[in-house]
Write a structure and sequence with these properties.
By secondary structure, this protein is α+β, with helices and mostly antiparallel strands. It has helices at 3-6, 10-21, and strands at 38-41, 49-56, 72-79. Strands 1-2-3 form a three-stranded antiparallel β-sheet.
Length: 83
């Protein structure tokens, strides 16, 4: 998670992480290729949150990869204004 998400109050942080875990609102606007690797979360009294999954070739995480079946995956949770 980014510094902005990390600095949220504990109850807000828990709400954000639960919303990411339970996210299933994929639509063509946010997920045009059907990859289910990006989402937008809007919770009351919190800034808009983005989450995304990046795919890397190896554990060094220097280069992305197109081989998503054999990739290292990193989930990033961030405030929308940190994107």
């Amino acid at each position: 998670m980014t510094q902005g998400v990390h600095s949220l109050p504990p109850d807000a942080l828990m709400a954000v992480l639960l919303a990411v875990r339970n996210y299933d609102t994929f639509d063509p606007e946010d997920d045009p290729y059907g990859e289910h690797d990006f989402g937008v979360i809007e919770l009351p009294n919190l800034p808009k949150i983005y989450w995304k999954i990046d795919y890397y070739e190896d554990a060094n995480m220097e280069f992305g990869t197109e081989d998503r079946l054999n990739a290292y995956r990193v989930l990033m949770v961030m405030l929308a204004d940190e994107y």
